[in-house]
Amino acid sequence: MKKHFLLTLLFLALGLATAGAQSYQMQVKLNNGRVVKFATDSVAEVTFAEAPVPQQAWALPSTQFGATATQVLGSVAEDTTTRTAQVSVAATGRNITYTYYFDAGKKYKYALITFDSSDDYADYIKFLQAGGFSADTEWPSSTDLVYRNTVSSLVALATTAGATGEGSYARIAPSVIIMPLDETTFSWSRTDPMQGAAGAWLPLLGNGSTVDLMMRYEGRMGHSVNTSLSAPQRGVYRFATGDSRWTETRYWYDTKTKQFLEEAAIYCDSTQRPTPAEVAELLTAKGFEATSLSDGSSDLIYYNRAEKVAAFVAMSKPSTGADNFVPNIHFAFMDLSAQLPPDSVNFPWPVTDYGVYTLDEVIAKFKAMPYYVSDTTSSLGDGFHQINTSSPDFPIIIAIIDGGKYAGCLVGTTDALRVSSPYIPKLLASKGYEKYEGPAFPTYVNWTDNKEVQIINMDLFSIGMYFVAFEPNERTKN
Q1: Cβ within 8 Å of residue 241, ≥6 positions away
Q2: Which residue positions does the secretion signal occupy (predicted)?
């Protein structure tokens, strides 16, 4: 409504109040050009009210998540330092700024919408609710809110917390973030803390995600930033959780810009450490697998291959230089694939009928296998015969002859990582073998067929080879 129109109405209203019973003709010209005429003696009251902003004044940002800046915004350039692109829109006299955020791979992750006033923010929340977004009432925070649209698979993270003057620790507010609805472990938009075994939960683990997202996540959790121990100028943030067991969360951002998440950790009270079984349950449920790697204190390292995230389970106090040690699970984005066994290997399954065939007969059996290339005597001496295979991972099978009969074999590789591939235990399980606890080497037994397999993950014969040993079972169930 234009200012001069309001003044005209005010003047006419004053005239009505002082004119007594005289009747005048009143003419009002609206913004759309329409003229309305009526007699003043028919007017009982004139009320001035601000016209509501029509919903079409508001709009969602692009929901083309995963696209590039060019695909999302056309000619608007991305700021490669902040990984953002900004668009300002004037809607019915209101200024709305959309800031589009991208990851290190230049893929669109979310949009931040900022407003000139708290009234604009409130109106936008109404617009979202009218468009199918429902408030998530799970969180205790009154300033960091979540709205979900399950039909459109979108989540809105709304906050007014920045208005409280928290300086370096403030959310960008008042504002609304629009993101894809994704509650998986490493999602930038995850709101679920994924609480699991031992009462532990996961910090926000979106690789390269922003400080603003982390502050909203911790704010919803009701955690308090420790301003005396945090160091935003170094990209380090620490939070007191208020939990008696898991007492603190910490985040580390890149050293260059202090903007992009690289590491996070959750700390526990030293008198309430989780058991190894609880740690395993917590992490494997979230997509991590135990590895054969360990840190300097012999603590286990878990790893998520798909996302390249390591979880260092630091529960043992180092022998030196750790006066302030606090047990923790520390998550870091790093590629450990070169240090870990491969997910899968080409494994030539051998002949497993023992005590039946002579050497010549078992060689004939191996020749019928699709991987057979050739055979020869073995450097291990009498009682051993070598079958060469086409497998790039396990090129050798050494048949063992005892008492003139085939008694077992060694499926060999020159790579210690390949012999420890998780594919092999899975293959054994599919063929009826169960893990048998106790022996120094990983051992699996097929109780039905009375056969055994051991994974010899060291160079037992000092010939630069590692073996999977197949033989009859002589063990009894534990």
Answers
A1: 221, 223, 247, 248, 249
A2: 1-21
**Rounded to the nearest 10 degrees, how much is the dihedral formed by the CA atoms of 117, 123, 126, 132?**
-90
Cα 241 to Cα 267: distance, rounded to the nearest angstrom: 10
Residues 455 and 347: their CA atoms lie apart, in Å, by 13
H or E segment and range at residue 251: strand 246-253
Instruction: Answer left, alpha or beta for residue 42, where phi above 0 means left and psi between -120 and 50 means alpha.
Output: alpha
d(CA 171, CA 163): 8
Q: What pLDDT does 1 receive? A: 41
User: One-letter amino acid identity for 342?
Assistant: P
Q: Find out whether 249 and 265 touch, Cβ atoms under 8 Å.
A: yes
- On the 0-12 / 13-18 / 19+ scale of CB atoms within 10 A, 38 is exposed
Residue 283's beta-bridge partner residues? none
Rounded average pLDDT over 120-135: 95
What's the one-letter identity of residue 18?
Answer: T
- How many other CB atoms are found less than 10 A from the CB of residue 258? 16
- Mean pLDDT, the chain, as a whole number? 87
Report how far residue 120's alpha carbon sits from residue 173's, in angstroms, rounded to the nearest whole number. 12
pLDDT of 377 higher than 50:
yes
The pair of structure tokens assigned to 433 is 């073998």
Candidates 275, 321, 318, 278; CA nearest to 295 is 318
Which DSSP helix (H) or strand (E) runs through 12? helix 3-18
